[in-house]
Design goal:
Layout lengths: L6 H16 L7 H10 L4 H8 L6 H13 L5 H9 L4 H12 L17 H5 L8 H16 L7 H10 L3 H8 L4 H9 L8
Helix pairs in contact: 1-2, 1-9, 2-9, 3-9, 4-10, 8-9, 9-11
Protein name: Peptidase
Pfam families: Clp_N
Organism: Streptomyces sporangiiformans
Amino acid sequence: MFERFTKDARAVVLGAVGHSERMGAETVEEQHLLLSLLDREGSRASFALASLGLDRHKESVTEALAQARRRGGLSRADADALSGLGLDLSEIVSRIEEAHGVGALESEGKAKGRGKGWWSGFLGGHRPFTRGAKDLLTESLRIALAQHDRHIGDEHLLLALTARPGVPAEVLADHGVTYASLRRVLYGGGEAKAS
């Protein structure tokens, strides 16, 4: 599948591996793909993010992702579900951090094993991609095909992030970047169209 990726999309995937390495993670997660997308300049995804004003809020997005990692990668929807069971996630995090130190629930460096497949082969055996990150790459292919695009661009990766439930989509939505708003910017519908 990687042969279908544009130069920009490949740069995002490689950038995600770099973010994973710098953060000390043993795996590449969806959040690393989002961070890599935020690094891009001069691509369709970067144009769409700038059109939606996210270029002025990169630090806020990075901080929101860090807070989610501190909660063990749980989204607000997860926290709400736990609350419905009578469990206060912030209290749980506080107690665990009292006993084990700040950041004890962070997922970096806790995954075991190495993945196999096109993603690890292309990357020369670097960190494996989590199931969520692999599914995101597959979703980007579906989105590209639905648009009748022959190649997967970084814009398809960005759309896939917003189409899947989880922390990256939640953080993006909190900053006004949703699947619907991205589609309008990228493919028309009354706003500027990325070319």
